[in-house]
């Protein structure tokens, strides 16, 4: 029997207050048992949170940049001090294996906080064009609505740049994984963030999320989640003409060019498999399509199968977040989801008795228009597609309603960069380049609008004013 973590109060106006809604149970995906209970917000709680954020806005917006940076640095230090608690919380609510919980779910958001503080200290809040002073001013109250797949990171990438800009925030975390957000609220409180600058209201999307999206006291909705819900939020927010930032789904391609030698091909396959299976495939930028030269397909299949075999469910590979999510992912495990020509090159690994696990799976000879090539799986399922030329590889990569992440692998670095420029996607990593915690993050096409993280994340929550003199 797992111990149960109880979060009995929301964080509104710098105080912990019991929520007026019903309690919500949080399940541990590895044990399928209740591991947390959180209080949820009523309509009155949402009203109080928005009112607190509005009241706190003028003073926070007027707080000098060095002071805002100093508070954020204290927040960062508290998160680092409590890194073990954050990691254990993410393991509890998402089932992430401990190593993944620490590196992906805690160290990465800490790097994002550091990069945001750097960006804040360099940010051009004013610039000049002719006789105009162009001012970037924080938008006001930002409602942040976050998904379950990265319970701390998705909150940090929205909330920290907004606070840096001088905006105030009301956060509604995902119902499946709300616990890390409560821990973060404690970090804000302990770091001395002024009352009302950050507020936490948990609850369902249809109630609390919808209230925030409609609320006239909210100036911007910053949403990360699925494309259908993003579309709905954009429609509702349009009624009050709110600014909207949407970070949505993806079906990112990893493209191996014809000039890649055997060593680079092996690296490309290994890193693509690792990226696709990271967080049990539950990342929006997952390289879930591997596009390779047709004459190297058999070698790629061997390499991908060997790499996938190392992700044993229950040890290196965590569970999916819920029984529903597992059911959804299972519908892609049949190679028919990749079209008539598709074959499974790895699948059917042994699963632990408890927990919402699926086998890591590699399906090859996938047809570019098939369901598997077109739909976001959000599970550890890699589609391998063959291309007869680099041009065809680019066309396959761009044959998607999404455009969030991507990768290019090639022996000629300049040629690989030129291919990166042709991909219709918000981020591309060339030859395994490292994640940059200060780089703009966001999507082309139906992967969203707006950019998060670093100076672009700060700019995303600012209005622009031209003052002529
Ligand atoms: P979701 O769209 O179901 O929910 C996301 C959030 O929106 C949750 O907090 C939910 O409660 C809330 N919500 C739901 N309906 C709402 C409504 N009508 N009004 C207001 N809020 C509402 O997504 P999810 O299942 O939690 O997350 C998985 C999805 O998120 C995947 O599609 C994934 O690709 C996407 N994602 C995108 C990024 C990115 O940065 N682009 C990052 C991570 C996840």
Automatic annotation (TrEMBL):
PROSITE patterns: ALDEHYDE_DEHYDR_CYS, ALDEHYDE_DEHYDR_GLU. It comes from the Bacteria. GO terms for molecular function: aldehyde dehydrogenase (NAD+) activity. Residues 16-467 form the Aldehyde dehydrogenase domain. The active site is at 247. Keywords: Oxidoreductase. It holds the Pfam family Aldedh. InterPro entries: Ald_DH/histidinol_DH, Ald_DH_C, Ald_DH_CS_CYS, Ald_DH_CS_GLU, Ald_DH_N, Aldehyde_DH_dom. It catalyses: an aldehyde + NAD(+) + H2O = a carboxylate + NADH + 2 H(+). SUPFAM superfamilies: ALDH-like (SSF53720). Its EC number is 1.2.1.3. Belongs to the aldehyde dehydrogenase family. This is aldehyde dehydrogenase (NAD(+)).
């Amino acid at each position: 029997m797992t111990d149960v973590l109880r979060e009995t109060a929301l964080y509104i106006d710098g105080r912990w207050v019991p929520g007026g809604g019903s309690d919500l149970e949080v399940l541990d995906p590895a044990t399928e048992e209740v591991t947390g209970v959180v209080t949820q917000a009523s309509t009155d709680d949402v009203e109080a949170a928005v009112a607190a954020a509005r009241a706190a806005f003028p003073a926070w917006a007027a707080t000098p940049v060095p002071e805002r940076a100093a508070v954020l640095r204290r927040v960062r230090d508290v998160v680092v001090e409590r890194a073990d608690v954050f990691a254990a919380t993410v393991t509890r609510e998402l089932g992430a294996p401990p190593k993944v919980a620490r590196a992906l779910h805690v160290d990465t958001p800490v790097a994002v906080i550091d990069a945001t503080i750097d960006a804040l200290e360099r940010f051009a809040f004013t610039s000049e064009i002719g006789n105009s002073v162009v001012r970037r001013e924080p938008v006001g109250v930002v409602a942040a609505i976050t998904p379950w797949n990265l319970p701390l990171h998705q909150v940090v990438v929205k909330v920290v740049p907004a606070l840096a800009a001088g905006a105030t925030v009301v956060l509604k975390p995902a119902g499946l994984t709300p616990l890390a957000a409560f821990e973060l609220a404690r970090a804000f409180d302990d770091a001395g963030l002024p009352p009302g600058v950050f507020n936490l209201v948990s609850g369902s999307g249809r109630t609390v999320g919808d209230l925030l999206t409609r609320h006239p006291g909210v100036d911007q909705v910053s949403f990360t989640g699925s494309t259908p819900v993003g579309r709905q939020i954009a429609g509702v927010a349009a009624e009050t003409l709110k600014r909207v930032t949407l970070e949505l789904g993806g079906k990112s391609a990893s493209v191996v060019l014809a000039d890649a030698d055997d060593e680079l091909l092996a690296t490309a396959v290994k890193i693509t498999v690792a990226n696709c299976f990271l967080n049990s495939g539950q990342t929006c930028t997952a390289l879930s399509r591997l596009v390779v030269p047709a004459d190297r397909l058999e070698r790629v299949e061997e390499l991908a199968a060997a790499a996938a075999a190392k992700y044993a469910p229950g040890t290196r590979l965590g569970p999916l977040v819920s029984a529903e999510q597992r059911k959804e992912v299972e519908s892609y495990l049949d190679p028919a989801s990749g079209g008539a020509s598709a074959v499974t090159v790895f699948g059917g690994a042994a699963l632990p008795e408890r927990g919402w696990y699926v086998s890591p799976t590699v399906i090859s000879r996938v047809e570019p228009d098939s369901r598997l090539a077109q739909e976001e799986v959000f599970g550890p399922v890699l589609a391998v597609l063959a291309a007869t030329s680099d041009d065809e590889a680019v066309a396959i990569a761009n044959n998607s309603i999404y455009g969030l992440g991507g990768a290019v692998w090639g022996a000629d670095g300049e040629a690989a960069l030129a291919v990166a420029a042709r991909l219709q996607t918000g981020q591309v990593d060339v030859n395994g380049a490292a994640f940059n915690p200060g780089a703009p993050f966001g999507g082309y096409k139906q992967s969203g609008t707006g950019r998060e993280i670093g100076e672009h994340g700060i700019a995303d929550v600012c209005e622009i004013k031209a003052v002529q003199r």
